[in-house]
């Protein structure tokens, strides 16, 4: 794409508890001032973004970019819509307007939507970024993710946070990260240890006291917590972190070490880096994908890696090429 592309925009107005809706007039003004060609679609109900993205992918014209204005969950829906249409070469751009915005952190995209817009408009060609792909044999379900898939503790945190009355208030005060902190305490007391089987790199490992089981595409989860600092979105690998059940004191200590990126040195933390991964549980556990709830269920998940063209330029863009 040599010329400035036409942007097909999907806006999720409720992302970030209304933050996307508030910032949109400024984004629209910036686009008009630049003379940027665009078309706007509003995502108005759960799953609507997936349907809009699917239809766009099927009938996309040349020199078009799909621009998502919303949170990581909105981006997840859009990518699943595009990928399910069988169109793997459609460039996607993203303005982070959610409460977590971990994907933006992971790729070096500014968390300020207006600054992120400048990074998008400065791009001259798409760059390929890894996506995780999973298939759950128990539900015959396939999906794509940009951040991570979690089973156990982090998914319990997501469930509690998403159903928390305080989340809306904290987001309005730009303190959305605090909602995760409050949920951490409640999730720790309610999440039991569980058995999990991991098949990776030609070997099988069984853990009898699984607690946090997170497959990640980049370093961050939970609104900026570096669960795997060395994870990259350009290595065609996924990183799995398994943390065993701990007592409350060591858990608090380990969480502090995680914030510092030093938790992987401890024997209760297990790390796998692979392009082909299987995770199985037998008990009913909470699951989450890109911050969206998967419900409480058993899992038999096979993970692989694919890629998605993104329209942006960041400090990390060169390493994606």
UniProtKB/TrEMBL annotation:
Keyword ATP-binding: yes
Matching Pfam families: DAGK_cat, YegS_C
Domain DAGKc: 2-138
Cofactor: Mg(2+)
Entry keyword set: ATP-binding, Kinase, Lipid biosynthesis, Lipid metabolism, Nucleotide-binding, Phospholipid biosynthesis, Phospholipid metabolism, Transferase
Domain of life: Bacteria
SUPFAM superfamilies in UniProt: NAD kinase/diacylglycerol kinase-like (SSF111331)
Gene Ontology MF terms: ATP binding; kinase activity
Record keyword Protein transport present: no
GO biological process, one term: phospholipid biosynthetic process
Family membership noted in the UniProt record: Belongs to the diacylglycerol/lipid kinase family.
NCBIfam families to which the protein is assigned, alphabetical: YegS/Rv2252/BmrU family lipid kinase
Protein name: DAGKc domain-containing protein
């Amino acid at each position: 794409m040599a010329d400035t592309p036409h942007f097909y925009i999907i806006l999720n107005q409720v992302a970030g508890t209304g933050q996307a809706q508030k910032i949109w007039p400024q984004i629209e003004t910036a686009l008009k001032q630049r003379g940027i060609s665009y078309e706007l679609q509003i995502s108005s109900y759960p799953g609507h973004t997936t349907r809009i993205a699917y239809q766009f992918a099927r009938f996309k014209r040349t020199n078009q970019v799909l621009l998502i204005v919303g949170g990581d969950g909105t981006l997840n829906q859009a990518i699943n819509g595009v990928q399910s249409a069988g169109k793997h070469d459609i460039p996607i751009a993203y303005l982070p307007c959610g409460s977590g915005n971990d994907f933006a952190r992971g790729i070096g995209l500014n968390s300020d939507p207006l600054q992120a817009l400048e990074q998008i408009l400065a791009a001259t060609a798409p760059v390929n970024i890894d996506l995780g792909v999973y298939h759950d044999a128990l539900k015959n379900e396939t999906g794509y993710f940009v951040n991570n898939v979690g089973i156990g503790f982090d998914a319990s945190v997501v469930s509690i946070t998403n159903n928390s009355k305080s989340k809306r208030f904290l987001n309005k005060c730009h303190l959305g990260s605090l909602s995760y902190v409050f949920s951490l305490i409640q999730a720790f007391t309610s999440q039991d240890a569980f058995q999990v089987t991991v098949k990776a790199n030609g070997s099988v490992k069984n853990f009898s006291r699984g607690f946090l089981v997170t497959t990640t595409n980049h370093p961050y989860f939970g609104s900026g917590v570096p669960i795997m600092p060395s994870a990259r979105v350009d290595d065609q690998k996924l990183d799995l972190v398994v943390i065993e059940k701990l007592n409350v004191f060591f858990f608090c200590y380990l969480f502090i070490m995680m914030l510092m990126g030093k938790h992987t040195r401890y024997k209760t933390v297990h790390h796998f880096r692979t392009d082909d991964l299987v995770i199985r549980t037998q008990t009913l556990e909470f699951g989450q994908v890109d911050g969206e709830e998967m419900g409480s269920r058993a899992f038999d998940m096979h993970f692989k890696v694919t890629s998605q063209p993104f329209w942006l330029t960041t400090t990390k863009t060169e390493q994606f090429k």
